[in-house]
Amino acid sequence: MNEFIVAGKYRIIRKIGSGSFGDIYLGINITNGEEVALKMESLTARHPQLMYEYKLYKVLIGGVGIPHIRYFGQERNYNVLVMDLLGPSLEDLFNFCSRHFTIKTVLMLVDQMIGRLEYLHMKNFIHRDIKPDNFLMGIGRHCNKLFMIDFGLAKKYRDFRTRIHIMYREDKNLTGTARYASINAHLGIEQSRRDDMESLGYVMMYFNRGSLPWQGLKATNKKQKYEKISEKKMSTPIEVLCKGFPAEFAMYLNYCRSLRFDEGPDYMYLRQLFRNHSGVYQKLSWMFLWIPSGTPEERPPDDLLEEFPRIFWRITRRSSRGIPGELQKEFPWIFWRISRRTLGGMSDELLEDFLRNFSRKTTRRNPEALLEELSKISWTIPKALREQEEFPRNS
Fold it and tell me: Are residues 156 and 18 in the same domain?
């Protein structure tokens, strides 16, 4: 992909993700230096969906938490969609946080996710693949804003002009991700707004519990696996699924499962359900678990603070004790804050440059100004986090 220029101004830098549709690349606008994301789909794809997704983004344009599209067209042998560069997915962040979100974090995410689905439904479409991977955090000044993506499986559920709802059917194959699919989707019933909302309920409980009861089931093929997931999901009472967590989560799922096929969810009721939980909404700072502000649940985990000198050494091959005290004290926090960005593969050379620049600038710059500057760069969790090298503890 070297020197692959899209639309005469977007240069592809490196691959940062992939999916069934193709690959996602980090790019840069050579006219102003702005970073973008490029989704690329081969023109020979068996089930092309990028054109459809582009048309849907045009319908959704201007919505809060909807990425802005810069360009769509054909380049060489690809369909290319150029859009805003976003941060990590909720699945990435869940793994980064050792698969544990506080109730506060889940409540803040749910509030935004309900809003994104309400907007999509208002535009006459359902998503049909609600899962943590399809919600991404923004970057820079949008770092607390949740974005919804990947509309390749979305479907119009009612006519724009007549408002006539699609017909009820019972002969449908499962569309979406089985882990989060609604019970009706498993039963072959045509999906509607209620199914998006039910799937969101399973995402909530996935974050609360760390896993769902129907994960890890053994099967010989996909059909059998889907059947086992469906059976386990239907045989697990909502009260059992939500046991040990605030009652509002069970109330949410019971409400979603009670909706009629063509009934519109009461989004405000569902938002208020969680906002009213012990008055917690009044206490939310809208700073997420992975963005430090000094409180115990918003600081880097102790193991990161303890391990960072070793991580630093693996990259620079020198002890962090040899760097200025201010840098040694602040760097784990800075690293934690900016590493919420794209969780791809940061090169050792890039991290070394960052360390040198940070060491040079940190004594001269206002910390907040420095953070704002750093947040414009696509930082990632370095490979060193996963390397198993011996650390010279006395160096």
Answer: no
Residues 142 and 252 in one domain: yes
Q: How far apart are CA 165 and CA 163, in angstroms?
A: 6
Same domain, 79 and 17: yes
CA angle 132-185-261, nearest 5°? 110
User: Over the stretch 193-223, which tens digit does the pLDDT of each residue have?
Assistant: 999 999 999 999 999 999 999 999 999 999 9
* Cβ–Cβ < 8 Å for 147, 67: yes
* Whether residue 129 lies in the annotated active site: yes
Alpha-carbon Rg for the chain in angstroms: 23
Residue 391: inside a domain, yes or no?
no
**Per residue in 257-295, pLDDT tens?**
999 999 999 999 999 999 887 455 545 555 565 554 443
Q: Does the reported pTM lie above 0.70? A: yes
**Are residues 123 and 208 located together in one domain of the fold?**
yes
Q: How far is CA 51 from CA 10, 19, 54, 58, in A?
A: 19, 16, 5, 11
DSSP one-letter string for 343-385: -S-B-HHHHHHHHHHHHHHTTTS-HHHHHHHHTTS----BGGG
| Range(s) of the domain holding residue 375 | 300-386
- Burial class from Cβ neighbours inside 10 Å (0-12, 13-18, 19+) for residue 17 reads middle
- Give which of 33, 2, 37, 35 is closest to 18, Cα–Cα: 37
Helix/strand/coil (H/E/C) assignment for every residue in 49-74: CHHHHHHHHHHHCCCCCCCCEEEEEE
* Residue-level pLDDT at 142: 84
Q: Which two tokens stand for residue 99?
A: 């698969």
Q: Which of 92, 111, 129, 196 is catalytic?
A: 129
